[in-house]
Amino acid sequence: MIAWIEENGLRIGTFPALDALAPALSVWFTTRGGGVSRPPFDSLNLGSHVGDSRTDVLENRRRLKKTLGIGANRVARGGQVHGTEIAFVKRGGTLEGTDGFMTVSRGLALAINSADCFPLMIHSPSEMVLAAIHVGRSGAAAGIIGKTFDLLYERYRIDPDNTVAVCGPGICPRCYEVGRDAAMAFPAYARMRRVKGWHLDLPRFIRTETERAGLKPANFFDSGLCTACESDLFSYRRDGDRTGRNWTLAMMIRR
Description:
The protein is α+β, with helices and mostly antiparallel strands.
C-alpha cells in the first residue's frame, strides 16, 4: 500500500510496509505537482534532457530534496541509455551511460529517472547495500535485473531471505502496445489483443525475474501505478517526447 507525503505543494508516494522488513530504507516517487516548470513539462519535471528550462529543473530538484531532507549533493543519478551498466557509487552526481547504481553509503539517495520505464530498488538489510536500476524494455531483455542480483551476491553476499525489492510506477500492459519483434523478446509476457496488437506485461516480467534471482515473493513491493493511466505522472507513451520525467529515489538512512 502507498502512503503520500503532501508538503510544499508536492505529492510524493512512499511505501510504509517497508518499515517492518527494511527499517533503514526509504523509497519515494514523485508526481507532477508542486514544481515551477511550464507546459508541457508542468510542473515538477525532474529530467534535464527533455527540453525544459535548466533553471526550472534545478529548482524542482531543490524543492524535492528540501522536502525529503536530502542534502544538496547527496543524489546519484545516471544518463540512462537503456543498457545494463551498473556503477558503484559513494557520492552524489551524474554518471553518463549508466542505468543502475549500487552503494553502501547511508544518506546517499539513488535516483531513477522515468516516464514509462520502471525504477527497481533492491536492498539487503543484513549487508546494508542498496541498488537502484532503470528497467525499460531493452534493459530488461538484456538482463539488467539478473546482472544486478549477480553483482549483489558476488560482491556483498546478500541474503535473499531478507532482501527486499521495490518497483515504482511504470507503464501497465493495457497501455503498453509494442511491435511483434519487441513482443517476441518476451514471449511469455506478451499477449495479442484483437484490435490493438501486442501488449507487453513488463511488471509481471520484473516480478518474475526477482523471484528467479531468489527474492521471496512477499518481499516484493509494487506501487501498482501506471504512468500512462495516471494523469498525475509523466508518460512518454501518452504524451510524446515533449513531456517531463518522474523520479523514484531510494536511500539508506542513518540510524
